[in-house]
Design brief:
The complex is a heterodimer of chains A (113) and B (113). By secondary structure, chain A is mainly beta. Helix content of chain A is 0%, strand content 53%. In chain A, strands 2, 4, 5, 6, 9, 10 and 11 form a 7-stranded mixed sheet that branches. Chain A has a 4-stranded antiparallel sheet with strand order 1-3-8-7, with no helix packed on it. In chain A, strand 7 and strand 8 form a beta hairpin. Chain B has 113 residues and is an all-beta fold. Helices cover 0% and strands 63% of the residues of chain B. Chain B has no helices and 11 strands. In chain B, the strands form 2 sheets. In chain B, strands 2, 4, 5, 9, 10 and 11 form a 6-stranded mixed sheet that branches. In chain B, strand 7 and strand 8 form a beta hairpin. Classes of the chains: A mainly beta (113), B mainly beta (113). At the A-B interface, strand 5, strand 6, strand 9 and strand 10 of A face strand 4, strand 5, strand 9 and strand 10 of B.
Chain lengths: 113, 113
């Protein structure tokens, strides 16, 4: 158990809908990272927040957004969902801005039908 | 273009044998290189992190090497166990103002009894 929690574990929704994925980092960690893992593309970095502020941006679509709240938990919002958004979404946390080890959560499996 | 290539794509070995996985990268400017182990459907778990100045790092039966001149890394697994069956992912970080994380597509290792 990494200490990172993600909810929900599974999510099934229809195309065009909007969903919110939630992540609670390990106690004391200030950075939260979001990753997408689909069958055909492997793991891709989406976005990082550090202590409430956006720190780094990867291949995140404009339909996706994230935020980190004062209690350091983070939410990833996915809107206008398409079939291709079906994937495992992982959250990770680390104590720093990006140098040290990242601890991954168990993931949220999103299925868009 | 920043890229991380891993080989082989998949590997089958017998329990107790050693194996070596390769990672070549063209990421610049280099910050650090990480190896992760990922069991199917679960979040990745960090094995090693190496910076530019480190050329070898061990974590139990896992030993990673880094040659920053040739931009190559390897992960050596000694005395393999059935529980080593997983995907092994190489990730290279670059700092271009902010961090960028470039993932390899992984090597799928299966250890047979």
């Amino acid at each position: 158990d990494s200490g990172v929690t993600q909810t929900p574990k599974h999510l099934i929704t229809a195309t065009g809908q909007r969903v919110t994925l939630r992540c609670s980092p390990r106690s004391g960690d200030l950075s939260v990272y979001w990753y997408q893992q689909s069958l055909d593309q492997g793991l891709q970095f989406l976005i990082q927040y550090y202590n409430g502020e956006e720190r780094a941006k990867g291949n995140i679509l404009e339909r996706f957004s994230a935020q980190q709240f004062p209690d350091l938990h983070s939410e990833l919002n996915l809107s206008s969902l398409e079939l291709g958004d079906s994937a495992l979404y992982f959250c990770a946390s680390s104590p720093d801005r990006g140098t040290y080890e990242q601890y991954f959560g168990p993931g949220t499996r999103l299925t868009v039908t | 273009k920043n890229q991380v290539e891993q080989s082989p794509q998949s590997l089958i070995i017998l329990e107790g044998k050693n194996c070596t996985l390769q990672c070549n990268y063209t990421v610049s400017p280099f910050s650090n290189l990480r190896w992760y182990k990922q069991d199917t459907g679960r979040g990745p778990v960090s094995l090693t992190i190496m910076t530019f100045s480190e050329n070898t790092k061990s974590n139990g039966r896992y030993t990673a090497t880094l040659d920053a001149d040739t931009k190559q890394s390897s992960l050596h697994i000694t005395a393999s166990q059935l529980s080593d069956s997983a995907s092994y992912i190489c990730v290279v970080s670059a700092i271009v103002g902010t961090y960028k994380y470039i993932f390899g597509t992984g090597t799928r290792l299966k250890v047979l009894a």
